[in-house]
């Protein structure tokens, strides 16, 4: 494992990674709630908030927008991704190389792995090459560890998320990005299963401020090391307010009530 403590991706050992690869993964519909977010510049503007330690984007967005923000925030180069138009078995092809990400100033690489898919063997082979190339560049690897496929009935079941975080450790990821399994106890098990691999919560579709902050708080109290989030920040009319509250919960050990009050 690469020690992440002093990396640009962390603050006090924890991370808040703002994800914005949705234009590829989900398409225009994700930007409809706040039409200004269609312009990647709007979301990049949020990365100057003190709470944000990293931004996760695809190649084209990184090439165009990251050069103006490289002094403000760490780049997590999201190397693979697939569109919502693809209806086949879950698989996510690699769209740019680790070498090119390093050239663009990446501080870490991100890679989705769909364990449980019929194409799992191919994805593991792809991930092997990425993880080893990232090691050559001393770049940490963040695995979007998303079990998915015909055999999987519930992709956020306790044991599924624990398995997801363990797979990240087994395959050499430094950070496991997993969905919230619904309780602090289940997240604790996921953190235990990951060993030295740091576990961060994946944001999910937009919920209320309180519901979202409670999941984040449970993740931090479970030993999780932060959050990688998209819609629950930039689909809000006032994303700065939720970032203020997230800063309290993730970095200041505040309760949800304290965080909401501080963000007023
Ligand atoms: P959200 O916080 O908006 O859920 O974003 C996290 C993320 O992993 C994105 O990086 C990615 O685009 C999206 O979720 C993929 O979600 P799914 O595969 O569940 O549609």
Task: Give the tags.
binds 1,6-di-O-phosphono-beta-D-fructofuranose, alpha/beta, 264 residues, eight-stranded parallel beta barrel
What does this 3D model show about the protein?
- An eight-stranded parallel barrel has the order 1-2-3-4-5-6-7-8, surrounded by five helices.
- With 264 residues, the protein is an alpha/beta fold.
- It has a single domain, classed as Alpha-Beta Barrel (TIM Barrel), CATH 3.20.20.70.
- The relative contact order is 0.14.
- The protein contains eleven helices and eight strands.
- The protein is globular and about 50 Å long.
- The model has no long low-confidence stretch (mean pLDDT 96).
- The structure holds 1,6-di-O-phosphono-beta-D-fructofuranose (FBP).
- The site of 1,6-di-O-phosphono-beta-D-fructofuranose (FBP) has 14 residues, from helix 1 and helix 9.
């Amino acid at each position: 494992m690469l020690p992440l403590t002093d990396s640009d991706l962390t603050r006090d050992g924890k991370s808040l990674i703002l994800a914005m690869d949705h234009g590829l993964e989900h398409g225009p519909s994700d930007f409809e709630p706040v039409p200004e977010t269609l312009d990647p510049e709007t979301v990049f503007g949020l990365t100057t908030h003190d709470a944000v330690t990293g931004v996760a984007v695809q190649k084209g967005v990184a090439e165009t927008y990251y050069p103006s923000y490289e002094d403000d925030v760490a780049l997590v180069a999201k190397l693979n991704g697939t569109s919502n138009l693809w209806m086949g078995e879950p698989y996510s092809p690699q769209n740019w190389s680790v070498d090119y990400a390093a050239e663009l100033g990446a501080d870490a690489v991100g890679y989705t792995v769909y364990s449980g898919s019929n194409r799992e063997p191919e994805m593991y082979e792809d991930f092997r090459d990425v993880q080893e190339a990232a090691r050559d560049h001393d770049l940490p690897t963040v695995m979007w560890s998303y079990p998915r496929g015909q055999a999987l009935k519930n992709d956020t079941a306790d044991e599924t998320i624990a398995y997801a975080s363990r797979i990240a450790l087994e395959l050499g990821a430094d950070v496991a990005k997993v969905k919230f399994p619904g309780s602090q106890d289940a997240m604790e098990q996921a953190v235990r299963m990951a060993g030295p691999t740091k576990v961060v919560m994946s944001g999910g579709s937009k919920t209320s401020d309180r519901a979202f902050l409670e999941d984040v708080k449970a993740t931090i109290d479970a030993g999780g090391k932060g959050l990688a989030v998209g819609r629950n920040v930039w689909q809000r009319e006032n994303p700065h307010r939720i970032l203020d509250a997230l800063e309290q919960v993730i970095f200041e050990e505040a309760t949800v009530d304290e965080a909401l009050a501080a963000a007023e």
